[in-house]
Amino acid sequence: MLWDVFCRVIDNFGDIGVCWRLSADLAARGHQVRLWVDDACALGWMAPQVTWATGASGCDIGTGHPGISVHRWADAERTELLPEPGDVVIEAFGCDPPEAFLRRMNRPAPPAWVNLEYLSAEDYVERSHGLQSPVFNGPAAGLRKHFFYPGFTQRTGGLLREADLAERQGAFDDEARLAWLGRLGVPATANCRLVSVFCYATAPLGDWLNALADEALSHSTSTRILLTPGHATQLARSWQATSSSARQKALILHELPALPQPEFDRLLWACHLNIVRGEDSAVRALWAGKPHIWHIYPQDDGVHADKLDAFLDHWLKDAQGPLSAGVRAAWRHFNRLPPGCCDNGLSGPSTGEFPPPPPLPEWRQADSDWARASQAARQRAWSQTDLVTQLQAFVAPFVTSSG
User: Is the dihedral of CA 273, 278, 284, 289 positive or negative?
Assistant: First the structure.
């Protein structure tokens, strides 16, 4: 089948990150994908195999990944240049495809039209998954689109998970891990403890680096902090400029380059504790099966607190009381949310008015309670049918009826 995937990059990298993974997974299963995006800059490091050239129509087209072509959103607004819509149109996160494209969809045998929604563990996801929405006016009047919700239960659309993920993770043994870290410029040994950091500018990272340093000092060892470009690196540099020499010796900071998606996945597999941000990275941290902390995108109305707690409720299912309390406290602190209170918390830089980070549950040992709970959560999620398999089955009746 031919799929048209529409993506607007609203902020950060989550939108394009999810859409690229979706497109790559579809292509790996033999589909053809046209990815329409308004800002393709992140693909320069996220999918560096994509190169741009002018096509026969005079439009720029990104190629280089088998089965995927990348197109400028603006070109989908130009009626004279539009190709025929494919078999399926994916509207990612309610991004409203261009009117010119919608007009081309409005034909006797329209494509299947799916609004791929944001990931949430909240109760409304099960109620809303699969619902249809008829369009009554505008260029798409008479068409119907369906809402497809990723999620963590059997009554949702599941999670993005490539068919070869288990095989690739299985091949990433201790020898491969250390070799990969070496190529990344991290001279780790089997006994090194590694923490990856990918966060927003609002993270209280300086306070957390102090806590990790003190923890390392108490273990008479050092911890390597692997910093992704952008906010994580900038916040760590600020900490380094003001921290004590003892703490700086306890933490060895490594500033990483921007990593393509498969390499970012390996980063999470390689570390003992992962701090991640955004939807795509939260799912990849889940598949890594390691202790992790999720920095959710903060929203002014505070609804991110409810979303965070819903994730915790699912992720910590069956976890013992002390572990559950410790992880919840850590997640909420990193998100500047007071323990047990669903409000806005503090959204600015650390002011000293917010308490220091709570003690972390044991994360250094592969058999710790936190590590075992992470592996159990991974296994529960793995028992679901993955998102692309479900999505293929979901659109099949509409494609058959229209074809």
Answer: positive
